[in-house]
Amino acid sequence: MSRNEERRFLVLEAEATRDYGTTVLKAARHRHYASKEITAAALADELGERPDVEVLALLESDHRPVGLITREGLFALLGKPFGREVLGRTQAWELAVQAPVLDWHTSIFSAGTRDGAATVPYRILVDSEGRFRAVLSTRDLNEHLSRITEEDIELAGRIQERLESGNEVLQGEQYKFEAWSRPAKGVGGDFWFTKKLQGGEIFFALCDVSGKGVAASLVVSLVWGMLRMYDFRKGLSCLLVSLNEALVATFHLEKYLTGFFGIYDPNTGVLEAADMGHAHALVFREGQARKPGANGRNLPIGVEQAIDPVLQRWRLKRGDALFVYSDGIPEQENPEGSELGERRLAGLVLGILRRGRSLRETLPAALERHRGAAPQQDDMSFILLNLDPGSESVPIQRAG
């Protein structure tokens, strides 16, 4: 065997394991190692022919690691004046860099919090008997966690799309619902829900979860599932209490939501509603926009251990429209930094309703024109209950 052939085998590679699960080994791509007895010069010669080797572990005869050698660090030492003459006969372990040793079974989600993760460029991964398995770089760990986060966001986005597509967009002879939602960051905390109840009433809700991203999507999934399975014969108040108990038990007051929850009876025109700290709703009647009633007594869901929701009831009449929206719409700025505002939003909606246009098809385009090149700052959602002008007139008065 020639000297060149011997040199190629001074640096070896640990066998890869097929099933990494969620351990740190999943992110580790450096598995090269060499005996600690190798000289610095011999190692440098081989690394000169192995551009793929960024870092390697130096091992005892029993495969226990004694430290690391990085390609960049070794070449920097040998490149100094008289570096090869001084260090050429030095054994590599004398130049080894110490690194934290981590059991390869360690969860990848906890590895970043150990050993001063932000300042440790490498970790040596070992098995239960302390034998070398791989070298994990902070860069590879961060890239892997980033990919996981991206995949989680994509999955959360697909789940939310499926949830929204599972909603019933309801329409009858006397009413029509329209709804729209667009997250600011791929997946968000706004959502709407509609369901026709057994007695012919319509339940609807628009909610705005605190925060954005995957954490908010967890709340959305929990609440949407509860709404889907809830027995509405128990009443609106019981629903809100149950939602509050579930959020508090699951998120321990760390996540909450504001929301407008309503049950509309097309036969009587009565709307029973609870504004849970939301305060973003308008009733359009006879060309005017008005708040559906002052209610500052209900806190958001999930901020207190126990709640006693205050419900309100109104009679809606022919031609009325109830518009509920999230704060991301009026607070959206244009490129000059000017918010859309409540008054301008009301004017936009009123103009669309007067022209008999679809709010779902028309309002988003108007919002885009206002936003221009400015980024979308928050999730945007709305739901509209539009009473057909041909429906039976119901006297305007507070019910009950």
Folded structure, characterized:
The chain is an alpha+beta fold. The N and C termini lie far apart (99 Å). The chain has 2 domains: 143 residues, CBS-domain (Roll), CATH 3.10.580; 222 residues, Phosphatase 2c, domain 1. The chain is built from 10 helices and 17 strands. Helix 6 runs parallel beside helix 7. It is elongated, with a radius of gyration of 32 Å.
Overview features:
about 30% helix, about 25% strand, about 400 residues, disordered C terminus, five-stranded antiparallel β-sheet, elongated, 17 strands, CBS-domain, single chain, Phosphatase 2c, domain 1, alpha+beta
Short description:
With 400 residues, this protein is of the alpha+beta class. It has ten helices and 17 strands. The chain starts with a helix and ends in a 13-residue tail after the last strand.
Sketch the major β-sheet. Answer: 5 strands, antiparallel
CATH class of the largest domain: Alpha Beta
What is Rg? 32 Å
Gross morphology: elongated
Strand content: 15-25%
Count all strands and give the number: 17
Low-confidence stretches: 1-7, 390-400
Query: Structural class given helices, strands, pairing?
Result: alpha+beta
Number of helices: 10
Residue-averaged pLDDT: 84
Q: What's the name of the CATH homologous superfamily of the largest domain?
A: PPM-type phosphatase domain
Strand order in the sheet with the most strands: 8-17-16-13-14
Q: How many domains?
A: 2
Helical amount: 25-40%
List the helices and strands in order: HEEHEEHHEHEEHEEEHHEEEEEEHHE
In the CATH hierarchy, the third-tier topology of the largest domain is known as Phosphatase 2c, domain 1
